[in-house]
Amino acid sequence: xxxxxxxxxxxxxxxxxxxxxxxxxxxxxxxxxxxxxxxxxxxxxxxxxxxxxxxxxxxxxxxxxxxxxxxxxxxxxxxxxxxxxxxxxxxxxxxxxxxxxxxxxxxxxxxxxxxxxxxxxxxxxxxxxxxxxxxxxxxxxxxxxxxxxxxxxxxxxxxxxxxxxxxxxxxxxxxxxxxxxxxxxxxxxxxxxxxxxxxxxxxxxxxxxxxxxxxxxxxxxxxxxxxxxxxxxxxxxxxxxxxxxxxxxxxxxxxxxxxxxxxxxxxxxxxxxxxxxxxxxxxxxxxxx
Length: 289
Fold this sequence. Notes:
single chain; alpha/beta; D-Maltodextrin-Binding Protein, domain 2; 2 domains; 10-stranded mixed β-sheet; two-stranded parallel sheet; about 35% helix
């Protein structure tokens, strides 16, 4: 290798090294900072609303990857308490807010009802409010009293503090405690909606109350259950939509005040028609329908 060639090679390598260093410096200067961890938004409460909100959250997160929604259940009362204690930014409450809850901010996103459900083989077609009150007050304990077989009525209680329990108690003019009294089957007190559907499907003598939308969806899927007409009105989502069914309620997202930040973005999304298909898929009625 000639001296001149060696010198030229050293210069070329030095130039190349300088170019590489300059490129590396430019890359590091232009490289974006590490992505910030996602903001977590806790949503807690209603068993009825939780499956819907889980699906809504998955769709929302595709458009807002910087926000992670955490869904926790425990019942409507639990959701309200979590919001009041700031353990959750948003509560899921499967009823309207009452006058004593005026300091809370509620956004209804769907409509549902409370259905009275029996086994498909039960010959009973419907009940009126007086008959239903007699069942939950312990005055009616045998199906014979309702024109059925001479067999004990198996009354399954719901979740204490749930929106269903509060609406049913209000409709019947009974204290909420009566819905889980000694004549009700205590083993069902904390079961999920799906568990309560299975319990009725497995027991021809059972009767229970639960989300109309969920019960109707399960019946259409083949579960051997039947939704009873109430005061002569069939328990259907169509009768929720036309406001004929007497035990209907909004499904509400609740916060301590006007939502801000991630909570505002999420609740605004939930109040739009972008979730209507999910609301319908879960057997509910879009709130503005």
